[in-house]
Amino acid sequence: MLDLLKSSGYIQAPDMITEGHLQVVFEANPDLIRPWFILSEDKRTRYGYYLLPPGVSPNNGSDWVVGYHPGGKEEHFPDAPTACARLVKFEVENLRYLTEGGPPVKPRL
Predict the structure, then answer these.
(1) What are phi and psi of 48, to 5 degrees?
(2) Residue at 49 is within a domain
(3) What is the spatial distance between Cα 105 and Cα 54, in angstroms, rounded to a whole number?
(4) How far apart are CA 109 and CA 75, in angstroms?
(5) How far apart are CA 46 and CA 59, in angstroms?
(6) Domain annotation covers residue 106
(7) Is the pLDDT of residue 38 over 90?
(8) What is the DSSP letter of 104?
(9) Total domains, the chain
(10) Is 14 exposed, middle or buried (CB count within 10 Å of its CB: 0-12, 13-18, 19+)?
(11) What is the pTM of this model?
């Protein structure tokens, strides 16, 4: 994933890809959302961002949720493209900081 991030040019110009851009991609390609949910669900780490679809425990509500484990706040979204865009932006920002030798992004939820 780091190689893809580097070759995309994101590391040099992270502001060129916004959550809005990502949301448009996910709206046009909803089949790309499930892999991000699976990646979020399959993480084997003590900390990190996650994505929960409506009705998935502990999120029994009707919203999509992006949160930070452990102990971070959760954000609720009415639709999958918006929630997934937020998750992806958080994830790539963490990777960008890792490539630059800085600390991971602290949750701003």
Answers:
(1) 150, 170
(2) yes
(3) 26
(4) 6
(5) 20
(6) no
(7) yes
(8) P
(9) 1
(10) middle
(11) 0.84
The percent of residues above 70 in pLDDT, for the chain, comes to 91
**40-89 pLDDT per residue, tens:** 988 877 888 999 999 886 767 889 999 998 888 899 999 999 999 999 99
Task: Extract long-range pairs of 1-5: CB within 8 Å, 24+ residues apart.
Answer: 1/95, 2/95, 2/98, 2/99, 5/92, 5/95, 5/96, 5/99
Three-state DSSP state, 19: helix
Residue with the two structure tokens 């040019």: 9
Compute how many other C-beta atoms are within 10 angstroms of the C-beta atom of residue 68: 19
Residues of the domain holding 93:
2-10+30-99
Name residue, tokens 């992806």.
88
Segment (H or E) for 33: helix 33-41
